[in-house]
Amino acid sequence: MTTYKDSGVDKKEGYQTVSKIKKAVSETHNPNVLNGIGSFGAFYQLSGYKNPVLVSGTDGVGTKLRIALDTKIYDTIGIDCFAMCANDILCHGAKPLFFLDYLACGKLDSDVAAEIITGIVNACKETNTALIGGETAEMPGMYTVGDYDVAGFCVGVVERNEIIDGSQIQEGQVIIGLPSSGFHSNGFSLVRKIFPDFYEEFEGKPLYQTLLIPTRLYQNDIFAIREKFPIYGIAHITGGGLIENVPRIIPDGLSAEIEIAKIKIPSVMKELQKRGNIDEKEMFGTFNMGVGMCVIADTANADNILALVENSMLIGSIKKGSEKIRLL
């Protein structure tokens, strides 16, 4: 008699995955979460807001996964998945409320799945976000055995009168760069082309250890700044680098002038550019180049903001102009 397992889908492995993550996931819950894992939908009640606006975002880890899968290091890519979503909604001043994950594979290994999801749990705990649901899809024939794809969906909230949308950006304000932790989760198709050997030594350790450093979570930084000083715009520097992401928040008639010399570019990115003979514009249009977030603020508050976030950089200012970004 033919079973579902004969086709390559092992339901018991899925049940074991749930069993292994259930306690850790429940530790991210708070009184606003009204049910647990197992329902068809997850319930989350809003409380404590006068005029709340929900802000949502979805993203994945991209081909950074290839490095994690090949080196069998799974505990950081869950952090990447969460951070790519949460950092996006943070650009509008939203605090993440809850998160859902999607994990797809060719053949499910409950230990691997649990390790990936534990990374998401750890990121949720750091930001007081509830992991309230997800989907694990075993799809033989679509993915090869050992391969996984990871994506997520984040919902946050902000008071309507506190939304950050760039509309208050004006000439004379400054651009402060918050440091990245590395490549984050963008540009890895090019990274893997230039660095095909993840095990080669780089700065005294295997290169993969540098490449797999997870995406930095910026929630604490942004809210620490916003508690004391107004922020007029925030850009998450993801795929497309500074060149494509900063213009998304700049109003017409203004230009973000960024001084490249003031950016602390990570050594691994300098090595990539040198080894691949990559043009500077291509680098700044593909990678974050050491700037994970850009914050637009008043000139008078620049020094205090720089003191709040370690290794942050004053990288430019807002000027009048038809080009929304200029690299100087």
Summary tags:
328 residues, alpha+beta, 60s Ribosomal Protein L30, Chain: A, 11 helices, 4-stranded mixed beta sheet, Phosphoribosyl-aminoimidazole Synthetase, Chain A, domain 2
Give the spatial strand order of the biggest sheet. 8-10-5-11-9-12
**What is the CATH homologous superfamily assignment of the largest domain?**
PurM-like, N-terminal domain
Query: What structural class do helix, strand and pairing data support?
Result: alpha+beta
> What is the helix tally?
11
CATH topology of the largest domain: 60s Ribosomal Protein L30, Chain: A
Total strands: the figure is 12
- What is the straight-line distance between the termini? 70 Å
Assembly state (oligomeric): single chain
Briefly, what CATH class of the largest domain?
Alpha Beta
Elements, N to C (H/E): HEHHEHEEEHEEHHEHEHHEHEE
Spatial extent as radius of gyration: 21 Å
Describe the structure in your own words.
This protein folds into 2 domains: 4-162, 60s Ribosomal Protein L30, Chain: A; 174-327, PurM-like C-terminal domain (Phosphoribosyl-aminoimidazole Synthetase, Chain A, domain 2), CATH 3.90.650.10. It is 31% helix and 24% strand. The chain has helices at 11-26, 64-71, 77-90, 110-127, 188-194, 207-211, 219-226, 241-245, 267-276, 280-284, 302-308, and strands spanning 52-60, 95-105, 130-138, 148-159, 174-179, 201-202, 205-206, 233-236, 254-258, 291-297, 313-320, 325-327. The strands form 3 sheets. It has a 6-stranded mixed beta sheet. A 4-stranded mixed beta sheet has the order 1-4-2-3, covered by helices on one side. The protein has a two-stranded antiparallel sheet with strand order 6-7. A hairpin with a 2-residue loop joins strand 6 and strand 7. Helix 3 (77-90) packs parallel to helix 4.
